[in-house]
């Protein structure tokens, strides 16, 4: 029911986060645990590489075969991503009509029967019907045809080189490499204004599965829905919560979604730990990065530019904490080549720094290689 949402501060009967609350993430993939408490801000100890919808999102109309290699948001995609030196995978979670958290990006499922294309909202399906689309786990079963609408409005078959069945959040916890962290995006329809009690119910259903199956797996929650992001922070204090934003590259009726400055406000009001922004929004407003850092918030990014090594390296230089990428193999290897050597400090460097002999960090100088990266990046940035 599309009723006006109540502000998160008015939520009744929610457990308040105690003053000594702490959040922690640990993975053998991370050099250190990620820790947060009220006295010391949540801190990401290394530059993170996060696989978008696992091994990468599907763009069925793309001429790049990598965008159609493995079915997105599937167990196969998640474990394929785990083969590379990444830290987390990002995926989208919705809740079915019978209260089961499932992993699927689009708001609706498109299919075809007797030559007629129809669509059904994921949240209006029961689990059994949701799982009936696409390849089936039982070899003797044939799933319903799965279609997808492209950005230009065409409806095409969801054909990828290596397909896989749809899955639940529980499946992911049970079947994905345990050292791989999860960035769980709490997915809601941009065109619906949700009642507060509905948001709470959905989030509690998801949190129940996380509580039961997460074990020691690193987890970050994120959402474009500002009330949902603030609510999940109130409902639990074990895992950090990030607010997703387009950073002003697209405009929405809810002004909280329309700029990085508004995103900072959402985080500070709700006690969130960070922002995930479309990278073009950051590059068009680089002055927001120090504001985010001054607010003791972490910053991750997503977007097409994150599939290019040079923009990724520039983000490292800017102090951004990590990137969500589609080309996990290429970018994870590029990060290893470009960033890790730059982060290493010799004993001599440490001694000079202690003696105050190093130049002020504010006098950032770019090498010829870094200037070359900038020049390659500029044409990308001026495109809309």
UniProtKB/TrEMBL annotation:
Catalyses which reaction(s): a sn-glycero-3-phosphodiester + H2O = an alcohol + sn-glycerol 3-phosphate + H(+)
Coiled-coil regions listed in the entry: none
SUPFAM superfamilies tied to this protein: PLC-like phosphodiesterases
GO terms, molecular function: glycerophosphodiester phosphodiesterase activity
GO BP, sorted A to Z: glycerol metabolic process; glycerophospholipid catabolic process
Keyword field contains Acyltransferase: no
Enzyme class, first EC level, given as a word: hydrolase
Signal peptide location: none
Recorded superkingdom: Eukaryota
Statement: the UniProt record of this protein carries the keyword Hydrolase: yes
Keywords: Glycerol metabolism, Hydrolase
Entry's EC annotation: 3.1.4.46
Domain GP-PDE: 47-335
Recorded family membership: Belongs to the glycerophosphoryl diester phosphodiesterase family.
Entry protein name: glycerophosphodiester phosphodiesterase
């Amino acid at each position: 029911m599309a009723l006006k949402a109540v502000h998160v501060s008015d939520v009744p009967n929610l457990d308040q986060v105690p003053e000594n609350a702490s959040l922690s993430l640990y993975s053998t993939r991370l050099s250190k645990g990620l820790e947060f408490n009220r006295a010391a801000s949540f801190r990401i100890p290394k530059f993170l590489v996060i696989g978008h919808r696992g091994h990468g999102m599907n763009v069925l109309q793309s001429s790049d075969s990598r965008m159609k290699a493995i079915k997105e948001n599937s167990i196969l995609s998640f474990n394929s991503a785990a083969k590379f030196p990444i830290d987390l995978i990002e995926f989208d979670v919705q809740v079915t009509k019978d209260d089961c958290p499932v992993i699927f990006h689009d708001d609706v499922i498109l299919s075809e029967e007797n030559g007629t294309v129809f669509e059904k909202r994921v949240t209006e399906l029961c689990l059994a019907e949701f799982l009936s689309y696409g390849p089936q786990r039982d070899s003797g079963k044939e799933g319903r045809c799965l279609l997808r609408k492209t950005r230009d409005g065409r409806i095409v078959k969801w054909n990828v080189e290596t397909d896989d069945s749809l899955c639940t959040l529980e499946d992911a916890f049970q079947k994905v490499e345990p050292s791989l962290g999860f960035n769980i995006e709490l997915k809601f329809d941009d065109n619906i204004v949700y009642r507060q009690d509905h948001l709470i119910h959905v989030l509690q259903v998801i949190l129940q599965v996380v509580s039961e199956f997460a074990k020691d797996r690193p987890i970050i929650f994120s959402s474009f829905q500002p009330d949902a992001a603030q609510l999940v922070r109130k409902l639990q204090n074990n895992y950090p919560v990030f607010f997703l934003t387009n950073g002003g590259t697209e405009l929405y009726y809810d002004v909280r979604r329309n700029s990085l400055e508004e995103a900072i406000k959402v985080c500070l009001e709700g006690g969130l730990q960070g922002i995930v922004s479309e990278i073009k929004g950051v590059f068009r407003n680089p002055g927001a990065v120090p504001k985010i850092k001054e607010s003791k918030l972490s910053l991750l990014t997503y977007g097409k530019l994150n599939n290019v090594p040079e923009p990724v390296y520039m983000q490292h230089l800017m102090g951004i904490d990590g990137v969500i990428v589609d080309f996990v193999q290429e970018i994870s290897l590029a990060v290893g080549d470009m960033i890790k050597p730059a982060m290493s400090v010799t004993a001599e460097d440490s001694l000079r720094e202690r003696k105050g002999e190093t130049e002020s960090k504010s006098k950032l100088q770019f090498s010829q290689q870094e200037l070359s990266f900038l020049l390659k990046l500029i044409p990308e940035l001026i495109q809309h």
